[in-house]
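tool_log.txt
---
The assistant was asked to compare two proteins side by side. It first ran the structure predictor on the initial sequence, then on the second. Raw inputs and outputs are pasted verbatim so the downstream comparison step can read them without reformatting.
(1)
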Amino acid sequence: MNKNLAALYQLAQKPSRRIIGLMSGTSMDGLDVALCELSGAGEATTVKLLNFKTIDYTDDIKTEIRKIFAQQTIDFQHLALLNEWIGTLHAEMILDCLNVWNVAATEVDLIASHGQTVMHAPKILHGQKKFPNATLQIGDGDHIAVKTGIITISDFRQKHIAAGGEGAPLAVYGDYFIFGKRGENRIMLNMGGIANFTYLPSSMNPETVFVTDTGTGNTLIDALTRFHFPNLAYDKDAALAKSGRVNQALLAALKNDPFFHQPFPKTTGPELFSIDYVRRAQAESDAHNISNHDLLATLTRFSAETIAEAILSCTAGANIPVTDFHVYTSGGGMHNPLLIRWLKELLPCPFLETDALGISGDAKEAVLFAILANETVSGGESDFGSRKGIPSVAMGKISFPS
């Protein structure tokens, strides 16, 4: 047997595994690195977060990624170069973290790399009948494996698409395995660049679990903050938005897009929710001359209302009052006090952060990819039924160090 396959077989049999989960989302703030200890698989999964760090992307890294990120026309050579470059950068970031944590690479069983999304193109957005759903994450797994010496699992979203999904949201699997609780209806709400939520029924019946994107989370707020306030990366503590007023005509125009009338589950990305999207809505509503503070207030309200409306639609479809749910928040949006305040007004139910369940809301997505890697080697037997959007598959491509 090939020595790498033998090593993979052996670690799959271990009672517990140390797995590094990596996540860099559409907000492109940096790389989340979560060192986790996992045991079991599927519904029997247990996870302990040992260490966590977010390594900020430098301005240079962000600039290089934005040259191709969500762009219809790109320099193809630059895409190829970035695939290798990002993989190497992520490997170096992992090694830096291990050095700080005083953990040897030989003590880590697996790396679970999400990669850097540069294009998300579900069929409901690209609209081309002969082509399937598609998504692209760069940061080659072989480069990570060779540079770190650790078996790496990457490119998780492709199997999801091949099995009939849209490649997102993948949070449902880890949410169900570690956050589901019999006797309590839960909404796991993640607000990154794009917002999504997982509905976890109190019955813990996997065939009734539900997951979907809702639309924009932070992506428009961040993009317009950077555009109008070049010295700011984002609207920290909603300081700018809180000093503005919501423009109702613009809000209505922002919500007037076919995406919001598509059936659940569905996915989206900055390919749709871009600065051009906002400019078109401003033209439609004659809101070109509103202040930048009013614009950010309106965009924050846009995120809040579309998230709340999606959750209310889901709970109504399940014939369960929204007041019977607990909402657990994660992602950058949980730190936006104005967004959270409006969500609490729109959704009359208890709000907590996932920290209350033992996993930092900032680390959650990276942890969830560690769980997916654990499923790749030791699980993959959970049955979510045959519904659209949640194929019952183990995901990821395996890269060996040598």
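(2)
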Amino acid sequence: MNKEKKMSRYFNVVIEKDSDGYLIASVPELKGCHTQAKSLDELMERIKEAIELCLEIETDYQENEFIGIQRIAI
């Protein structure tokens, strides 16, 4: 049998913690793609599912090169 090899796509995931202690993950390349969880393991599982769902409805996304995150005090 000839198995088709699926090519991996990579997405940048931004992870933050809210005031209630929940971890929040978002994917800047996919509009509206975000989720939350109490643990990092659960968060990563959920964001993978969210990415798959977002890709089902959004086929036109912009792949950006990750440069970094900068924190600024004002």
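---
observation on (2): Residues 40-57 form the longest helix (18 residues). Strands lie at 14-17, 23-26, 34-37.
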